[in-house]
Amino acid sequence: MEKIDQRFDGVVYFSDKSNQIMIILRNEEYLPLSACHIDNKKLFVYLDEVHARGTDLKLPLTARGIVTLGKNMNKDKLMQAVMRLRDLDYKQSVVLWGSKEISAEIAMINGIKLDEIS
Asked: 1-33 pLDDT, tens per residue?
């Protein structure tokens, strides 16, 4: 938790053991999301690929998503991840992150220079 930005008081994630939505707080206390009374603007939400499909969490209107791109990412998986932001057409936004290899491939396919991808 010490590496998480100070703006956040906890991290929301799915437990590997119970598949339940959990929160880990700064004091390293674990509790179910349903028992948490922290403003959702102060929570960092982590969704792995498995939970990007079908998960519907109430996220702040100003939420920013980060989607990591990989070799096996297809349009369906990308859209499932991006659309967790239900208000993307309003104020929510998304950033796509890819390795140098993925970024180079995107640049090549689109006929642009690698340094044009920001």
From this structure: 677 888 899 999 999 999 999 999 999 999 999
> Exposure of 3 by Cβ count < 10 A (0-12 exposed, 13-18 middle, 19+ buried)?
exposed
Domain co-membership, 16 together with 64: no
Do 71 and 116 belong together in one domain? Answer: yes
Q: Residue 93 domain-assigned? A: yes
Parent domain of 109: 59-118
Q: Number of folded domains in the chain?
A: 2
- pTM for the model stands at 0.78
How would you class 85 by CB atoms within 10 Å of its CB: exposed for 0-12, middle for 13-18, buried for 19 or more? buried
